[in-house]
Write the structure tokens for this entry.
Amino acid sequence: MNITIRRFDKRKEPQSIDMTYPLFEGLTLLENLIKIKTTIDPTLSFNGVCRSGVCGSCGVSVNGKAKLSCSYKPSDGDVIEPLAYHEVERDLIVDKTKTHKTLKTSHAHLLGSAILENSSKVTVQSDCILCDSCYSACPVLAVNSDFLGPFALTKVYRYTLQSNENKKAIDAIQKNGIWDCTLCGECTLSCPQDIDPKTDIMNLRSISVQNGYNDPNFANMSFGDFEFNNLFR
Amino acid sequence: MTLLKGQNLTTDILVIGSGGAGLSAALRAKKLGCSVIVATKTLPTNANTSMAQGGFNASSNEDIQIHIDDTIRSSRGLGSSTMIDLMCKSSKTSLDWLLSLGVPFSLDDNGNLANRFMGGSTNKRTYYAEDYTGLKILQTLHDECLKNDIEFKANHYLLNLIVDEDTKEVGGATFLNIATGEVVEIRAKSVIIATGGYSGVYHGFTTNGFGSSGDGIAAVIRAGGVASDMEFVQFHPTALKKSSILISEAARGEGGYLVNGLGKRFVDELLSRDEVSRAVAKEINEGREVFLDVRHLGSEKLAHLLPQEMKLCKIHENLDMAKDLIPIKSVAHYTMGGIEVDQKLQASGLKGCFAVGECSNAHIHGANRLGGNSLLEIISMGLIAGENASNYKPKSKFKENNQLNKDRAFINTVYNTFTNQINFYEKREFLGKILYHNAGVIRKDMGLKEALAALQQMQREFTFMGISDKSKEFNTNLIDFIEFGNTLEVAEMLLVGALHRNESRGAHFREDFKETNDTFKAHSIFWKEDGVLCTEFKDVK
Ligand SMILES: Cc1cc2nc3c(=O)[nH]c(=O)nc-3n(C[C@H](O)[C@H](O)[C@H](O)COP(=O)(O)OP(=O)(O)OC[C@H]3O[C@@H](n4cnc5c(N)ncnc54)[C@H](O)[C@@H]3O)c2cc1C
Ligand code: SF4
Ligand code: SF4
Ligand code: FES
């Protein structure tokens, strides 16, 4: 019984190799990684803090699907890789500081004053642990690395529900944002916190339309006339 | 002054640690017009604060005095009424502040804020956001920090404080940049330490996340500061047996039983955490397993009340709470001791250095902490620390300081000179075990001495340990090792304190001195002179 881990070290040649390790059955993937590090190979690098699915630090890709390593029990033959669409720092550690910049670009924070009554409407969205699983699952990032990505957009939606002043955020998510999403639903499937970014993005589209924005794809397809389009802005 | 590489980062306020305490302090300092850098060894939202489920204590006007009294009673004579007053009286404004930032606390059917009882509290005053209170607070604070352009330095591991030899003024800190492997310094007019607790010394026997190694406390001791009450560690009675993951107090609050291997209940489940923890430990010491039994609550109610717990039981123990008995044990959960601070939260023995949250001992929790008071402390005191640090006027200008060079030399020595003949991971495991068994819920002289001897042996062997990974970037083997070094410093204080305190008080229980003895109604104080640990008792003010 084995698992395979894709190792990466930018100073080695080749930079990336697959290594096979024994599987410690009954343990979570994070516990397996710790066992490997402390008893077999101390150079294996990965992150993990809370062990209980709330800190968001331990996301990896297992057989091509994003998982929290602290909440996943590995089986024989599993292939463990770093999260997709992130720059790999070392082994399973990726650079999330870049992906988390999308939170700033999209103004994913409270812009006006908080509406207390709406707290219960954002129960699910506010459970986000910034694990980047959804980001790693989103096919748009394969073709457009500037796409804001699902978790930032879900957070924007959360705050539009919690505040009456959202113009800055709605403006910020028009470009490389809600209209670039293909509504494929991969983010929703991958979220360990049962958040549904796809639906949140659809809702943000409606809000945007109410605010005078329109679907650029639709507009371009139907009319293809630049000046005509501008009348609607 | 010539600037070396990595030496040129300066700010008004340097916050170390990005839990609830650090982020609240950062936001207040920024609001007061200061430039702020938050440095943290992980990513900002990976802090322990994310794990708090139960809730946040806040008292209404009619309840303030009762909240104060509850907290004082729980502190067993070691709480300061001034500090407790300050915290409880600002609890409502702290809650309102969180609400104004958009933390979505749970509402009841009438749209009012929902609250619940916590063990040891007279009134219902614990506000919660489902069972993700800490997570929602932390994520919302982080969003607010981004909005306010607070600068984060992620992957920055605090090594040491930069202290002026003559004035004892702290003018920044040195960090190992985990991403690059470089040792760097960040200079500041004042420093706020918010690095969390040290339950991690009980490796394998704690509800806390990895890295709760008391780094900030160890750094303060090395810098000539003082720690206090280090022997007081709160154990939580219901952690999963295999993984030490917390099953919240709500499981008992909602009517769950504790039963032993003979199927018998052995304790009133609603007693305080320390009493229940001792009863659980006694059963286990006498060879009987202990289980949490919530089967009678039914799967529907459980799914509603304890969804996180149900998930965790499934993953970590492969058990269904609705059908199975859940094997548990009591493990280290919260550390009351920490950096000794004055009423302005300034670290004793140092200037311009503030400490807040679980890493500090502001004499609020004393010998035992009331559930829900920690989230309150990190927010209310976090805001105060931010304000006091902003108002601090440094006496000395940034001077040449040798700390950076010393720390660079130390890291080089670890790479090149430490022999790595002894696997420190094995020692870490062993230390966790011996601390848990000899300095855990139930303690006695002999056992404590044995643990101290084992620990001192590890200190002597430290240079024979070391790292196998010689890479510079993202060397987590190195980080684990430095954390282990801090653990050795912090655990020594814990053991020495527990040995000297020949009495039982709050969470500290001595089998050989079962009674509370008021000659010990005093704070234990720890500091270092020429590298040697010193300790004495200091009267409660
Ligand atoms: C499972 C669990 C449940 C809990 N439930 C509750 C509850 O319901 N109610 C309640 O009131 N309390 C609860 N607590 C306690 C409470 O959550 C903590 O005491 C509190 O969150 C601590 O906050 P903090 O900001 O002081 O520290 P932390 O949140 O621990 O943050 C410490 C920060 O310091 C950083 N740091 C540490 N060392 C270094 C270093 N060397 N260099 C740089 N950065 C460093 C860490 O990365 C982190 O960002 C719970 C605790 C746990 C573990
Ligand atoms: S639904 Fe949109 S955001 Fe989600 S994965 Fe698909 S394309 Fe990406
Ligand atoms: S939305 Fe879900 S998958 Fe995406 S970062 Fe948040 S918790 Fe992770
Ligand atoms: S270790 Fe925190 S989410 Fe997995």
In short: The mean pLDDT of chain B is 95. Chain B touches chain A through 56 residues (CB under 8 Å).
